[in-house]
Amino acid sequence: MIVIQPLQIHVWQExxxxxxxxxxxxxxxxxxxxxxxxxxxxxxxxPITVALNTIEVRAIGHREPIMxxxxxxxxxxxxxxxxxxxxxxNRDGYQSADWVEAIxxxxxxxxxxxxxxxxxxxxxADVQPTRSLVPSR
Length: 137
Known about the structure:
Blueprint: E1 2-13, E2 32-41, E3 48-59, E4 65-69, E5 72-76, E6 81-90, E7 99-108, E8 111-116, E9 120-121
Antiparallel strand pairs: 1-2, 2-6, 3-4, 3-5, 3-7, 7-8, 7-9
């Protein structure tokens, strides 16, 4: 098995102060979100089972995850290319984390390996994105 698309992470967070339309006050909702993508490929002519032991998002330099999913097992059929996409969320957002990374640890044939995403910057929820620097016509 090989990883043909490296682990990518996309993160965003919503303001805890501004509720979306239709949400009742006092309802706890997820405000921190992450989307993880990677692709696995089975190059053999027999099915293989991959145990995904760790699927998490961590602040750079910290060991404790900000968000995580339960371990899972997937089976890849012969010569299968299997895109993987996981959405994680939490009710705390990214707190004081400026930069985060995704980590996926998997086990295949008794051997473990770890995928790391490139670090990404977390835009504060209460800050509006800056406008494009491209001049308008």
